[in-house]
Amino acid sequence: MSNSEPNNHYYEPAVPSLGLIEGTIIVMIVGAMAEVQWLDDQPLQVLGWILFPIEFPLNAVFFPGADTHVRKNGAALLEALPILLLGYVLYRLANGALSVLRRVLPKRPQ
Description:
Blueprint: H1 20-41, H2 47-62, H3 73-104
């Protein structure tokens, strides 16, 4: 379809632009990158010391040859997010499995 046909109510924008959702996603990504950079520039590195006791045994079990270092705040935050997400997913799966078991298994008589 083009705009040159008679009685055409179809509108073609001359320049394609980003929508609201795409623009919001770009702003969120740039904001997250700025926050990680700001965290890395802070003199007190706290998040790396919080993540180290979690990361060290996991690396020792699954990747024995890996060296575990204390990370800066921003890098520790980016590494902690998937670990927290995995923990949440496992928690939800365990809750779902327990609720199914409660429905399937008969109740004990009192």
